[in-house]
Amino acid sequence: MSAALFTVWLKELKDALRDKRSLMAAMSYAFFGPMLMAVAFFAVVKEATSESDVKVHIQGQEYAPELVSFLQQKGIVATAKEEADSGIELTIPRDYQSLLASGKMVSIVLRADYSERKNSSSRQRVSSALREYNQTIASARLTLRGISPEVMYAVVTEKQDTATKESRAAVIMGTVMVFVLMAVFFSGMNVAIDTSAGERERNSLEFLLAQPVRVFDLVAGKALAASTFAVLGSLLTLAMIPMVFLFVPLEKLGIDITFSLGQQLVLVLVLVPLALLASGLQLFVSFMAKSFKEAQTYISFVMFAPMTIVFVLEFSRFTHWVLDYLPVTSQHQVLLGSINGEPVGLFPIVVGALSTLVLAWLLLIAVQLRLRSEKAVFGL
């Protein structure tokens, strides 16, 4: 690092630290992701561990008291029609007892709005209870006829869960790590805009370009200042994750989330090249815009491109060996591998970092060439 580049970096850092808006932006994005996911998972844990009674309206319940009693044992309570969950209604025919006694099939109508997702678990609980009651009656009929009920079960599947606490945590943390990447892109965004389009509007950019400093050192210093805030945002996000999730009872789901200090530092180092890429991209877009507000608008749209890639990979679970070596996706793979407890090879980390740094360097070169034009300097 040259002395001029270091001086520009310190100058931009001092300017950014004086701007409370930049500091608040870096901290807000660091808190936003973990806090949002903690609230979401708290609701998931609460719903999964506390099963409330399902209220259904049973029409003709006097014809099948044994069935009504069985459903009540399963937490399915008969109630008035207007109090039923999502309008779930069971209709039992008048000839229920006679059909049951003669060994014939009884048709029970389960009426509900199957397009509604909110109470899908309630509908599934009712359907599951009816299937269980059907199997109980069928087994009793076979036993009375001297036939073993086991003849109905040619193959029985016994589920054995081999998931570890780390693999269960990976399902949750995979989503949280997306917010870590978002912090890298958004924490330094205000600094990048202020050091480019902001300085141009304050008429200080022309003065800086007139100094005996190489344009590339000037651009690189601005990128380093913005990337410093990006790294700070990712560090705060990683530090907040275990602190926030201490208040979420994930142990009820058999999930344990732990992050050692050394692991956090390694992940931050992996994200440093990505922070430089994000800052270079933001500077490039800012100098392409003609005003500060226009730069904010353009960057807001551009930043969603890499985030869209990460979200698609996370929710589609798409895997390919090329993803281990590309910018953004390589860092995402390292984050996922670290929380899965899987060994991450040094070669993909190095190649992914180099490809990210090369792309960041190309963007800085493009910004340097852009600043040779008076249109970029004066926002024409």
Secondary structure layout:
Blueprint lengths: L2 H16 L1 H30 L4 E6 L5 H9 L2 E3 L10 E3 L4 H6 L7 E3 L8 H25 L20 H23 L1 H13 L3 H5 L5 H30 L16 H28 L3 H11 L1 H13 L12 H12 L5 H25 L3 H5 L2
Parallel strand pairs: 1-2, 1-3
Antiparallel strand pairs: 3-4
Main location: membrane
Subcellular location: Membrane
Membrane topology: Multi-pass membrane protein
Notable traits:
4% strand; 380 residues; four-stranded mixed beta sheet; mainly alpha; elongated; single chain; 2 domains
Write up what this structure looks like.
A four-stranded mixed sheet has the order 2-1-3-4. The protein has 380 residues and is mainly α. It contains 15 helices and four strands. It has two domains: 3-45 and 165-378, no CATH class; 52-152.
Helix content: 55-70%
- The tally of structural domains comes to 2
Terminal CA distance reads 33 Å
Question: How many beta strands in the DSSP annotation?
Answer: 4
Q: Could you tell me the mean pLDDT?
A: 79
Rough outline = elongated
What does the main sheet amount to? 4 strands, mixed
Task: Encode the helix/strand succession as letters.
Answer: HHEHEEHEHHHHHHHHHHH
| SS-based class | mainly alpha
Number of helices: 15
User: How much is the radius of gyration in Å?
Assistant: 30 Å
How much beta, percentage-wise?
under 5%
Uncertain segments are: none
Strand order of the largest sheet: 2-1-3-4
